[in-house]
Amino acid sequence: MEPSAPITQDVMTFPRKETPSDKINLVGLTRDALRQTLIENGTPEKQAKMRTGQIWQWIYQWGVRDFAEMTNLAKDYRAMLAEKFEVRVPEVVSKQVSEDGTRKYLVRIDGGHEVEVVYIPEEGRGTLCVSSQVGCTLTCSFCHTGTQKLVRNLTAAEIVGQVMMARDDLNEWPERGAPKDETRLLSNIVLMGMGEPLYNFENVRDAMKIVMDAEGIQLGRRRITLSTSGVVPEIHRTAEEIGCLLAVSFHATTDETRDVLVPINKKWNIEKLLDALREYPKATNSERITFEYVMLKDVNDTDEDARRLVKLLDGIPAKVNLIPFNEWPGAPYKRSSNNRIRAFATILMQAGYASPIRTPRGEDIMAACGQLKSATERARKSRRQIEAEAGLQAQ
Ligand code: SAH
Ligand code: SF4
């Protein structure tokens, strides 16, 4: 299916705020780090625990950004905080709303880089697709982000800041009183935006810990899914240190094909990946590992592939998520036909695997899985290419 034209009337751009700041951003600090930072900047040690709790609540429970509004703190203490610290989240540069309600935000982070964040409203819930890196070091051949070089890892502040930014836009900071999960617009998080989250483990972990904290945004660990291309040595830690659900970009049933589609396979092949997943401490029938499988016409979509997949999954509490390939300009693949995808799904289902076909969302605004690639970085790369062609590249 060809994506329809973008609905440009729904693109909102926001003026650039140049606010270089030497203040310390409190967003993204773990509770311990926040306490330590307060102490280092003059909060008496005896008070630090209490102040940490108070400031934490203002930031993550009430969404307050201005110290002046933190009214349970003494006035001069608030003034001191404002002098040294800030509560800063990534700045929204533009927002597009798809015909299906999906929202794609382009946010700017320090250094002038931009990353994309996608909000997907669903019946009774809503999922935020969060980025973990600007670009990606990996080069999966079907992924648009993979054509963009890694620029840098996002900080914990920038990762949790994406969630806070979305809550701002959805107007979802709760009134006083416990937030009710069922009514939440932003009820789930998937680490499926730009980047490989397990190559930025500590920052992703700290950000998710903040999101899960009982005195703040309060999302349960089972409402967070981290997707990895298969960074085997970090898989175990994901269960131990984050405890969220795991998804794996599997996409092929032979090493030969997976080497091309997901080149990290050359480092950790299918066998090594499956061994690590078999040992994933959190994998149980109620917390299955999701195997993401992008359906590429004539590449990985035969009945034989489906049967091989069934064999490979043996012994792993798994579900398969079939993703119709989301095409992007210049992509070297085509999406499998709906009939092919259904036939593939049937084989999996007959073998007892739940295998929903993911409905592409936000295609008209290029917000679907694997289509994220920020315009600035895109421009940067093409300028390099132009320079290379003209023989102007730095020696
Ligand atoms: N780097 C991580 C998470 C980001 S990608 C990972 O690779 O798992 C999120 C999911 O979208 C992955 O399963 C990825 O393989 C898939 N994906 C990438 N490009 C895609 C495309 N063009 N169409 C459909 N899915 C795609
Ligand atoms: Fe990176 Fe994931 Fe895209 Fe592969 S699929 S290039 S790991 S973002």
Automatic annotation (TrEMBL):
Its EC number is 2.1.1.192. Belongs to the radical SAM superfamily. RlmN family. Gene3D superfamilies: 1.10.150.530, Aldolase class I (3.20.20.70). Specifically methylates position 2 of adenine 2503 in 23S rRNA and position 2 of adenine 37 in tRNAs. m2A2503 modification seems to play a crucial role in the proofreading step occurring at the peptidyl transferase center and thus would serve to optimize ribosomal fidelity. One of its GO terms (biological process) is rRNA base methylation. S-adenosyl-L-methionine binds at G195, E196, S227, S249, F250, H251, N326. Keywords: 4Fe-4S, Cytoplasm, Disulfide bond, Iron, Iron-sulfur, Metal-binding, Methyltransferase, rRNA processing, S-adenosyl-L-methionine, Transferase, tRNA processing. This is Dual-specificity RNA methyltransferase RlmN. It is an enzyme of class 2 (transferase). Residues 122-363 form the Radical SAM core domain. The keyword Glycoprotein does not apply. InterPro entries: Aldolase_TIM, Methyltransferase_A, RlmN_N, RNA_MTrfase_RlmN, rRNA_lsu_MTrfase_RlmN/Cfr, rSAM, rSAM_sf. [4Fe-4S] cluster binds at C136, C140, C143. Its cofactor is [4Fe-4S] cluster. GO terms for cellular component: cytoplasm. It catalyses: adenosine(2503) in 23S rRNA + 2 reduced [2Fe-2S]-[ferredoxin] + 2 S-adenosyl-L-methionine = 2-methyladenosine(2503) in 23S rRNA + 5'-deoxyadenosine + L-methionine + 2 oxidized [2Fe-2S]-[ferredoxin] + S-adenosyl-L-homocysteine; adenosine(37) in tRNA + 2 reduced [2Fe-2S]-[ferredoxin] + 2 S-adenosyl-L-methionine = 2-methyladenosine(37) in tRNA + 5'-deoxyadenosine + L-methionine + 2 oxidized [2Fe-2S]-[ferredoxin] + S-adenosyl-L-homocysteine. One of its GO terms (molecular function) is rRNA binding. The keyword rRNA processing applies. It comes from Celeribacter persicus. Binds 1 [4Fe-4S] cluster. The cluster is coordinated with 3 cysteines and an exchangeable S-adenosyl-L-methionine. It is found in: Cytoplasm. Reaction proceeds by a ping-pong mechanism involving intermediate methylation of a conserved cysteine residue. The active site is at E116, C369. NCBIfam families: rRNA_mod_RlmN.
